[in-house]
What we know:
The complex is a heterodimer. By secondary structure, chain A is an all-beta fold. Helix content of chain A is 0%, strand content 56%. In chain A, strands 2, 4, 5, 9, 10 and 11 form a six-stranded mixed beta sheet that branches. The radius of gyration of chain A is 14 Å and the shape is globular. The mean pLDDT of chain A is 93. In chain B, strands 2, 4, 5, 6, 9, 10 and 11 form a seven-stranded mixed beta sheet that branches. The model of chain B has no long low-confidence stretch (mean pLDDT 93).
Amino acid sequence: RKEVEQDPGPFNVPEGATVAFNCTYSNSASQSFFWYRQDCRKEPKLLMSVYSSGNEDGRFTAQLNRASQYISLLIRDSKLSDSATYLCVVKNLGGSGTYKYIFGTGTRLKVLA
Amino acid sequence: EAQVTQNPRYLITVTGKKLTVTCSQNMNHEYMSWYRQDPGLGLRQIYYSMNVEVTDKGDVPEGYKVSRKEKRNFPLILESPSPNQTSLYFCASSLGTGFSGELFFGEGSRLTVL
């Protein structure tokens, strides 16, 4: 089983639709969670961190469910410019003060006019 | 402007010709890392560094070397490149402290080994 798993999609949705992605992680001790956005052949950019209480930034809402070990991203009122790949990232603490970022393979979203 | 800078952005080389991809960050970040991204495989970590003179292998270190002599720089060295190292490479850095600490990425270096 992969440490971080995402549905690769693509999710094809019309403009204005609401779309949700889930990401599951296998390490119950994972400490930090992030959603990144990556446009084709460009660098990943932070969309939002995911906090235990859930958080919202405009049309984007992120949730963390530790019991079931998944995080989610909800996009409301989808725009054409939301078309991208969304990467789930989990930060795990290791021994001796080390840590590691684990990436999902990404979920591709296409918003259609 | 806070940024991670990689060079070169694009490179075509031949098998066996040593090359170095430079990475520099101006945010005084402790943590730096190299990733490669291949279709269907996502981002895979090559090497990372927790601080100056501290480096460790990631998931796919074979064929690569790194060094961290200064906090701001973390070059990736391919001593004898092979075609299976053709990929898109990203350098990233983070503050490294505590549980938070988002990763900041460079713009990527697209390497082709013939």
